[in-house]
Design goal:
One of its GO terms (biological process) is methylation. One of its GO terms (molecular function) is S-adenosylmethionine-dependent methyltransferase activity. It holds the Pfam family Methyltransf_11. Keywords: Methyltransferase, Transferase. Strands 1, 2, 3, 4, 5, 6, 7 and 8 form an 8-stranded mixed β-sheet that branches. The radius of gyration is 19 Å and the shape is globular. The chain has a domain of about 160 residues: Vaccinia Virus protein VP39 (Rossmann fold, 3-Layer(aba) Sandwich). The chain has about 270 residues and is of the alpha/beta class. Helix 5 runs antiparallel to helix 10 and helix 7 crosses helix 10.
């Protein structure tokens, strides 16, 4: 199981569900009594679920990372419990909806986690998972789309979990013995444009230094990429990053990243 920092979760989940929550309709949130958000991290999805449910609905977050749970307990707190997705600290039939967001793609055996979700649910189990192989980039820097695609594919080849699972999460849900009720697609679009946020400026600097790619070096080299190919990619990456910073200096830089998520809902058979 990969671990993620608060800053990574904030950057990748910022604005998630801000424009539409229609893909959550199959969850029938207005009729739920108790909901468990597994792998809740800093609580972003838990807060969305709380907003979409009745006042007397209980929404509980669960995560194995104690530092992330401390953030979830912060300024806009949600009830959270420390626990492993494969050994949830709840008795059978404790909730009527158990859900996760961007969790299964980081697990070696998603069906095993879904079986555990089903153990503590009386009705629905849902997975909100991305298809990271289908991410699209539209950038004012011509080289950025191609380099991001190359780096993403090299990373995908090196990871040992299915980070493109979202588009086919129904297979894992069916393997867990659940009946698939619905699948809805939601495109999470992250934009960078003037005035640039501190996070966008930091990301640009990390491109120019190659630090962002360096963080993934071990994973990339676990795939088919050679040391020489990685060095060439990082050199081009840094050059691209310098162009991004130049365009930011003249307020010309624009970037839109579209990450397709799939909400797949299963029912206890």
């Amino acid at each position: 199981m990969r671990e993620f920092s608060e800053s990574y979760l904030s950057r990748t989940r910022e604005g998630m569900w801000a424009d539409s929550r229609a893909a959550l309709e199959p969850l029938a949130l207005d009729s739920r009594d108790r909901i468990l958000d597994v792998g809740c991290g800093t609580g972003e999805l838990s807060r969305v679920l709380r907003e979409e449910t009745a006042d007397d609905t209980t929404v509980v977050g669960c995560d194995a990372d104690l530092e992330l749970l401390e953030v979830a307990r912060g300024d806009d707190p949600v009830p959270v419990v420390a626990g492993d997705a494969l050994r949830l600290p709840f008795p059978d039939n404790s909730f009527d909806l158990v859900i996760c967001q961007a969790l299964l793609i980081n697990l070696p055996d998603p069906a095993a986690a879904l079986e555990e979700f089903a153990r503590v649910s009386t009705d629905l189990v849902a997975a909100v998972e991305p298809d990271n192989a289908a991410v699209e980039i539209d950038s004012s820097v011509d080289a950025e789309d191609d380099l991001e695609r190359r780096a993403r594919q090299a990373y995908l080849d090196g990871v040992d979990t299915d980070v493109a699972l979202g588009a086919d999460a129904r297979r894992a849900i069916e393997a867990a013995g659940l009946e698939v009720l619905a699948t809805r697609r939601y495109d999470h679009v992250r934009t960078v444009e003037p005035p640039y946020s501190d996070g966008a400026l930091t990301a640009a600097r990390r491109k120019a230094t190659g630090d962002g790619l360096a963080d993934d070096r071990q994973t990339i080299l676990s795939g088919a990429v050679t040391e020489s190919e990685y060095d060439d990619l990082r050199s081009s990456w840094r050059e691209m990053g310098r162009t991004v910073i130049e365009q930011m200096g003249t307020q010309e830089y624009r970037r839109a990243e579209t990450v397709p998520f799939f909400v797949t809902v299963g029912r206890i058979a």
